[in-house]
Amino acid sequence: MRSLSADQLTELGEMFRMLGDPTRLGIVLSCMDEPVSVGHMAERLHASQSLISHHLRLLRATRLVRNTRQGRSVLYQVSDDHVRTMLQNMVEHIREEPIDPGGTT
Fold first, then answer.
1. Does domain 6-95 match CATH 1.10.10.10?
2. DSSP 98
3. Contact predicate 45/27, CB 8 Å
């Protein structure tokens, strides 16, 4: 893999920092498969709409989610397939049986 510039490393680190918060991670995971409204996310995550909106502003700033307008509603979804694939792979990874460090599974 080619090396990243200092700015790119900073941006990548910020993206991972955003995903390190359980609420923000839950938000991103909740809109991976389809566009979702703030209200629906708040319901799914048992959080207030204002808290979800605050986190969505941060996630949009780091390009992890994007929004689209449908009439009077604003819907959010994962920004692109790169983010979706990375998260799907990580979810699959944590669902796997742990590998025995001694090598005897």
1. yes
2. P
3. yes
* Cα(92)–Cα(50) distance, integer angstroms: 31
Nearest to 78 by CA among 86, 44, 48, 70: 86
For residue 56, what pLDDT band results from cuts at 50, 70 and 90?
Answer: very high
- Grouping H, G, I as helix, E, B as strand and the rest as coil, residue 30 is helix
In the chain, where the domains are located: 6-95
pTM for this entry: 0.86
pLDDT in tens, 2-28: 899 999 999 999 999 999 999 999 999
Distance CA 13, CA 69 (A): 29
The count of other CB atoms within 10 Å of the CB of residue 27 is: 29
